[in-house]
Amino acid sequence: MKVNKFRFKKLQQKKYRENRVGIRVPIKKEELKKGIYIVPALFTCGNMCLGFLSILSSIDGHFITAAWFLIGALACDIVDGRIARMTKSTSMFGMELDSLSDLVSFGIAPAVMMHMLVLNTMGNIGIAIAVLYVLCCALRLARFNVLSHSSELEKHFVGLPTPASAGVLISFVLSYQLLGPEEYTLNANTIPVLMEILPKFFRAMPIVIVVLSFLMVSNIPYMSFKKIKMSKIKTIELFAIIIVLIILIVIFPQNTFFIIFSMYAASGILFYVPRLIINKRNKMKEETEDDNADSEET
Length: 298
Fold this sequence. Notes:
It is a single chain. With 298 residues, this protein is mostly helical. It has one domain (38-269): Four Helix Bundle (Hemerythrin (Met), subunit A). Helix content is 70%, strand content 4%. The chain contains eleven helices and four strands; from the N terminus they run αββαααααβαααβαα. The chain has helices at 5-15, 38-59, 63-86, 92-117, 124-146, 152-155, 162-176, 192-203, 205-216, 236-251, 253-297; strands at residues 16-18, 24-26, 156-158, 221-223. It has a two-stranded antiparallel sheet. Strand 1 and strand 2 form a beta hairpin. The termini are far apart. 27% of the residues are buried.
C-alpha cells in the first residue's frame, strides 16, 4: 500500500521537532492553555485584592491588619495553585495573572508595610531599600515565568520564592506586635526565647530586607512543595513532623509562622554554601591530579 509522502512528512513534523544539534526530541503533548478558568482566577484575584487592602492599612498605620491581609493573600496563592493543578486548569492567562497578583501582595505590599514601620526613619536610604525589594520581586517573578516550562522547577525553585520572602516580613510583624511597650508578658501565645531575639531582629530589619531581596534573584535552589501530595504521606516521621507543626501553629501561631518562614529562607544558604565549597574543592583536586598526570607523562 502506497503512503502519501507529503502526508507522512506532515505527521512526522507534528510528532517530532529538531533542535540545533540535529537531535530529534518529542514535542510535549501537554502545553499551557490560553483560556481563563474561573475558580483559580477568583482566588488569584482575591490574592491581589487582599494585597491592595494591606497597602491601604499600612498607609493608615494599621500594620497588624495589613499583615493579616497578607496572610489571607498567602492562603489564596496556595489554594489557586493547588486547584489549578488538581483540575488540570493551568493556563498562560492564570500564570500571568498570578505573577501580577504576587507582585502586588508579596512585593509592593510588604515593601510599603516595612517602609511605614521601619524604613521611614532612614530617609532616602530607606526608600532605596524598599524600591530594591520591589524590583527584585518583579525580576524573580519574570524569571519564574521564563523558566516555567523547565523540568528543574518541578524539583526546586531557583531563588527564594516571593511568597516566602514576604512571609518572613509578615510573620515578623505579627510576632513583634506581641511585645508590650516595655517588656513582653509570658503567655500561651509566645515563645520566650524568640521574643527576646525580636528587638534585635527589628534593628537589623534594613539588612534583612536587602538580604531577602538578593536571595530572590539569586540562583540558590529552594525546595519546592508543589509535587507533595498530603494524601500520600508514606513515612511516619514526616507525618509526626506535620502533626507537631500543626500543634505549634495552634498554640503559637505568630511565632511559629515566623520560625517556619525564617528557616526556609535560611535553608537555601545553609545547603548551598557547603555544596559550593565541596564542588570547588573537588574541582581543584581534579585539576591538581590532571597537572600531576601531565607532569608524569613529560
